[in-house]
Predict the structure.
Amino acid sequence: MSDTALSINLNKIALLRNSREGDYPSPVEFGRLCIEAGCHGITVHPRPDQRHIRPDDVYNLAELCREYSSIEFNVEGNPFAGEIGDYPGFLKLVEETRPDQVTLVPDNDDQLTSDHGFNLKVDGDRIRPIIQRLHVQGIRVSLFMDPDPEQIALARDVGANRIELYTGPYAWAYERNDPELEDLFLRYDEAAKSAQNIGLGVNAGHDLNLENLPKFLGIPDILEVSIGHAFTADSLLLGMNNCVKAYLNIVQARS
C-alpha cells in the first residue's frame, strides 16, 4: 500500500482571523505549526469572496512551503473564477505561486462549501486546456470528483493526474450511522480502484475526521487526505500539535 499524506487545510484559521482586523491568528504561523508537528502538506481554497483565505495568504503560504523540501502545497478552487476586485482570478493566482498541486473544484460563488464533483460531460472541453496550461507550469492537477467510475474515466481523458474523491456523503452517512453506509463505502472503494486501474492517483477530502477517517482509509492506496474543518474543531479540544499527531497516527496506521 502507498503511504497516505496528510494535508492540513487552513481555511478555517483564516475565517477566524477575518473576524477581526489584522492577521491573528495567522494562517502562515499556524501552517508552520502544522508542518513542525509533522503534516505532509498544506491546503488552501481561496474563493473570490475572500471569506477565509485571501490572495496574500496564498503567496505567503507558497513561500512557507518552499522552506521545507518535503512539504507539498495544494491550492483548491474553481478554475473558471476570474478577477473580481482584488481577487486576481484563480488561474493567475496559482500560476504566480506555483503550488505542487492544484485541485480544481466546481464551486460557484454562492456555495457555502464544496458539495459536488465535476460533471465532465458538461465541463470536460473547458477543463482540458486549463489542465494543459497548468501542466506547462509543472503543476500536478487533481479534479474534485464524485465516486462515479464513468466520470472518473473522463478525468483521465481530459488530462488530470489525480482525482480527489468528494467524501461529504460518506461522512454524513457515517455520522448518522446510515444503514446504507456499507454500500456507499463500497462505491468509494470501487471508484478509487477504477481510477487507479486507469493510472490516476486518488486523493480524498471533505468532512473527514478522527472518527470516520480510519474506515475510509480501508480503501487501498489513497495518496492524500486534506482535513480542514474537523481538524480546526479538533484542535480546540486537543491542541494543534496533538491534533496533527492524532491524524498522523491514523494515516500511518493505514499506510
Summary: The mean pLDDT is 95. The first helix runs from residue 11 to 17. The longest strand covers residues 72-77.
